[in-house]
Write a structure and sequence with these properties.
The protein is mostly helical. The protein folds into three domains: 65 residues, Orthogonal Bundle (Multidrug-efflux Transporter Regulator, Chain: A, Domain 2), CATH 1.10.1660.10; 39 residues; 122 residues, Globin-like (Orthogonal Bundle). The protein contains 13 helices and two strands, in the order H-H-E-E-H-H-H-H-H-H-H-H-H-H-H. Strands 1-2 form a two-stranded antiparallel sheet. Strand 1 and strand 2 form a beta hairpin. The longest helix has 33 residues.
Length: 245
């Protein structure tokens, strides 16, 4: 199949397929004398694997590393995809249920506890851990994980409740000036909270804020607390770091 045919079949752009070729993620087995890329059945199977990993928020760099590994097994990968997607579906179904309940709560049809308002949000397993390892190194991530794992059940519950509370408080002031006194007070709480489980310099804190906007996965999760919260946090974290440096 030619590149345009593959793009139409899969529903992605020709430009994306060209990019995959350029970075060595998916290089067609054949190229015609005229320079047209010809994708084989093996190429399509590799593309399927790539898109399954991408759906699970793996970076292109990590996908290439996994698929090109001598130990990579396609059948095992598909079983893993299935397991992870089922888990993702369960979480999505729970969150849809939370939305439905919230709509009824807004109409005054039901009473909803604070715990019910956040059913489906799960931050106990970080889906972006690999990216964090690549950006800040294993030592920092392992230290954070060790700290979290040392918590008692009660401490973990308190940690999660504090996490949600900080995000809700930030969402309340997201329309204020990020450099305002109230915004800086609340972003300071986030900085102090992060340093409970790790060691974040002001520069790292500032870089983390930029990641919230640069990576749409972070933006999507953060903005669930309030549209535009990720951008607000980025700007508030930048102002906080600049003021103290």
């Amino acid at each position: 199949m030619k590149v345009k045919e593959v793009a139409d079949l899969v529903g992605i752009s020709v430009r994306t397929l060209h990019h995959y070729d350029e970075i060595g993620l998916l290089t067609p087995e054949q190229t015609t004398e005229s320079g047209y890329r010809i994708y084989s059945e093996n190429d399509l199977e590799r593309l399927q694997q790539i898109l399954f990993f991408k759906e699970l928020d793996f970076s292109l760099k990590k996908i290439k590393e996994i698929i090109d590994s001598p130990s990579f097994n396609q059948a095992e990968a598909l079983e893993m995809h299935r397991k992870m997607l089922l888990d993702k579906r369960r979480r999505i179904n729970t969150m849809i249920g939370t939305i439905d309940k919230t709509l009824k709560y807004k109409k005054g049809e039901i009473v909803m506890s604070n715990q019910e308002k956040f059913a489906g949000f799960d931050f106990s397993h970080n889906p972006y851990e690999q990216e964090a390892r690549e950006r800040w190194g294993d030592k920092a991530v392992n230290k954070s994980n060790a700290k979290l794992n040392s918590f008692t059940k009660a401490e973990k519950k308190e940690f999660e409740e504090t996490f949600h509370a900080i995000y809700r408080k930030l969402a309340e002031v997201r329309h204020e000036d990020p450099a305002s006194e109230i915004a800086q007070e609340r972003i300071a709480e986030w900085y102090q909270f992060l340093n409970r489980i790790g060691t974040y310099s002001l520069e790292a804190f500032k870089g983390l804020g930029q990641l919230y906007v640069d990576d749409e996965r972070f933006t999507k999760n953060i903005d669930q607390y309030g549209n535009g919260l990720a951008v607000f946090m980025r700007d508030a974290m930048t102002a906080y770091a600049d003021n103290l440096q």
